[in-house]
Design brief:
The protein is α+β, with helices and mostly antiparallel strands and about 180 residues long. The protein has one domain (about 20-175). The chain has three helices and twelve strands; from the N terminus they run αβββββββαβββββα. It has helices spanning about 1-15, 115-120, 165-180; strands at about 20-25, 35, 45-50, 50-60, 70-75, 85-90, 100-110, 125-130, 135, 150, 155, 160. Strand 3 and strand 4 (about 50-60) form a beta hairpin. The model is unreliable at about 10-15 (pLDDT under 50).
Length: about 180
């Protein structure tokens, strides 16, 4: 009886370990990364003056509304065609079961930074985000089902504003407020 309980517990933990959802981290023909000032603004090329581009898939549990709480699941490069990427299958953490919905965001950046957050601190980098979107996951059943495709809007990749530009804007806004009170 004891051996039967041990075998049952092992099987249950193995099934539970494979309960995460899966998504296909690829862009479709309708999802293109655009960058004004690079490649004529048509599509982000596989390499550009801003360096190589990286695309990251960020994940949050269903109901997440704060993009700063998302975690990076997977990255891919812009390849093989300009503006598109093939990142393969991404598996969600165990907090999202197969077939359940989750919140995702696709972020893109140029340069050698490992994450979007690091690239955003670089004034020579180009960055862009898709915005938060809900998407179902796949992968449930035995054998596991196919991953679910991601559905997100095109991403506009723009240069990071220099801190001096932001400071000048705030200074101008302050001057307008002071002048308005007179």
């Amino acid at each position: 009886m004891r051996k039967l309980l041990i075998v049952t517990a092992c099987l249950a933990s193995a099934v539970g370990a494979l309960a995460q959802g899966t998504v296909t981290f690829n862009s479709t023909g309708a999802q293109i990364f655009y960058a004004p000032g690079i490649n004529g603004g048509v599509a982000v090329p596989t390499t550009a003056s801003g360096g190589n581009f990286t695309v990251g898939l960020y994940y949050g549990v269903a109901g997440t509304t704060d993009p700063t709480t998302l975690t990076l699941l997977k990255t891919a490069g812009i390849s093989p065609l300009a503006g598109r990427f093939l990142g393969g299958t991404a598996t969600t953490p165990s907090s999202t079961a197969a077939g359940a919905a989750a919140v995702f965001e696709v972020r893109a950046w140029s340069g050698s930074a490992l994450t979007y957050e690091l690239a955003k601190a670089d004034p020579s980098a180009y960055v862009g985000v898709s915005g938060l979107f809900n998407n179902a996951t796949g992968g449930g059943g035995s054998p596991p089902g196919a991953p679910q495709s991601l559905t997100f809007a095109n991403v506009l990749v723009s240069p990071v504003p220099e801190p001096s530009t932001i400071a000048l804007g705030l200074l101008g806004l302050g001057a307008l407020l002071i002048r308005r009170r007179k």
